[in-house]
Write a structure and sequence with these properties.
The structure holds two protein chains of two kinds. By secondary structure, chain A is mainly alpha-helical. Helix content of chain A is 84%, strand content 0%. Chain B is built from six helices and no strands. The mean pLDDT of chain B is 84. The interface between A and B is medium-sized, with 27 and 31 residues.
Chain lengths: 109, 147
């Protein structure tokens, strides 16, 4: 069962890579998109990943704290909400900056 | 007038599941800050694009904060069977926020600075909350070592 699943996954991955290579060959050098698109993709990936790590650490600490001292759950929850809001606002700022780069194009295409 | 409004908002939030008092206060402050800031921005700029962008940003981030608060309250004390609802709430909120911001920036032509200012109301709310908490903890008499 596990072997067949792995085989299917490998086939899907190789097939998509092969199709992508065909497309790139057909399009010539136009396969590389504009720099801004790559920049936004990488920037959003970094922002989302790091914010995810931050939120996960905060939530882990809050759950541990509540498990050790359930009476402090209310205060911990408020601190957690504030922390999550701060971290998520950073991700939203990154999203807005990326959207500006992608659609408004202040630095050109 | 303001006290009546605050009491009504508090009662509404309690009915909607904001059981933790401080979380309720935070949400209420966010609502008042977003509504007041949007009104001031719209009036001060003569109902220009900047004011409307500020209002849109404040609205988006307030809805986002509402769902975040609810999810965080339930995450700390997860009830059985609530995991799927929580996940849906969390990812639905992210998707809605992203789609609405993308729509405003890319297609509606909203003012980016106004939008960013509106989105910053939640940071301002949290910062104000922190400052007020520190102020309340400062001892009025002595050096604070007596206790």
């Amino acid at each position: 069962m596990r072997k067949s699943l792995l085989m299917t996954l490998a086939m899907v991955l190789f097939a998509s890579a092969a199709f992508a290579a065909d497309g790139a060959a057909a399009a010539g050098t136009a396969a590389v998109g504009p720099v801004a698109a790559w920049a936004t993709a990488i920037g959003m990936g970094i922002a989302a990943g790091l914010c995810g790590i931050g939120q996960g650490l905060g939530l882990k600490a809050a759950c541990e704290g509540t498990a050790r001292n359930p009476e402090a759950g209310g205060k911990i929850t408020v601190t957690l909400i504030l922390g999550l809001a701060f971290i998520e606002s950073l991700a939203i700022y990154a999203l807005v900056v990326n959207l500006i780069l992608l659609f408004v194009k202040p630095l050109g295409a | 007038m303001l006290q009546v409004l605050v009491k009504r908002i508090d009662a509404m939030l309690y009915r909607r599941g904001f059981a933790v008092t401080d979380a309720r206060r935070l949400m209420r402050n966010q609502m008042l800050l977003a509504a007041g800031g949007s009104a001031v921005a719209c009036l001060a700029t003569g109902f220009s694009g900047w004011g409307f962008s500020f209002a849109a940003g404040a609205l988006i981030i307030s809805i986002n904060f509402w769902w975040l608060s609810k999810a965080a309250q339930e995450l700390v004390q997860v009830k059985q069977g609530a995991t799927f609802t929580l996940l849906t709430l969390f990812y639905g909120r992210l998707l809605l926020t992203a789609v609405s911001i993308a729509g405003l920036v890319a297609w509606a032509g909203a003012s980016v600075y106004g939008l960013l200012a509106g989105l910053s109301t939640v940071v301002l709310n949290a910062a104000l909350w922190g400052v007020l908490q520190i102020r309340h903890k400062v001892p009025t008499v002595g050096k604070g070592k007596e206790a």
